[in-house]
Design brief:
Length: 184
């Protein structure tokens, strides 16, 4: 199985499992959808992630460079495996949907029921652990945890997964575009 197919499978599994858990547990993920609010919040969240990435590059330069080197290697592997722009967009969308439905919809929904607002932080920790990195690139896992916290807060405040899905999709699409465009 090629790496792109494997990654698509993992994200599809997260989407299906998360969706099933959300439905089974009766967790609301679109309590009050508002296209304008969700769009503005999603774009704001994406810009916040961009700023956070720049901040991490300054605060943890060695670790950030190590994470970038790992991403470049991943990009080479994915390109050699046949990942093109269409597949990258599909993977960006499926990962945004799968991870938001699973981590924010199901995991956070369940944890907030039992832990209150602390469930948002607990979900962010689980999300970070789902994105491991070697010790030399630990800033990546830390960044992912903070991103998970921001996605979780957006969901908690809006009652909608749409802002997180939008921001997550844009962030992943930008990352894949950089990976595919590096051509190394």
């Amino acid at each position: 199985m090629s790496p792109p197919v494997f990654l698509l499978g993992v994200q599809l599994a997260l989407l299906l499992l998360g969706g099933a858990l959300v439905a089974w547990l009766g967790l609301g993920v679109l309590a009050a959808p508002d296209p304008f609010r969700d769009g503005v919040l999603g774009l704001g969240l994406f810009l916040l992630l961009q700023g956070l990435e720049a901040l991490f590059a300054r605060l943890f330069p060695r670790s950030f460079r190590s994470a970038e080197a790992l991403h470049r290697e991943l990009g080479r592997l994915l390109r050699r495996s046949g990942l093109g722009p269409r597949e990258a967009l599909l993977l960006s969308l499926l990962s945004a949907l799968g991870e938001e439905v699973f981590f924010r919809g199901a995991v956070q929904g369940l944890l907030v029921r039992h832990l209150g607002a602390w469930g948002v932080g607990a979900q962010a920790l689980v999300f970070a652990l789902f994105h491991p990195a070697p010790r030399s690139a630990l800033a990546y896992t830390l960044f992912t945890g903070v991103a998970g916290l921001l996605f979780g807060l957006a969901f908690l405040l809006s009652g909608s997964l749409v802002p997180g899905i939008l921001a997550h999709f844009l962030h992943n699409a930008k990352s894949f575009a950089e990976l595919l465009g590096s051509g190394e």
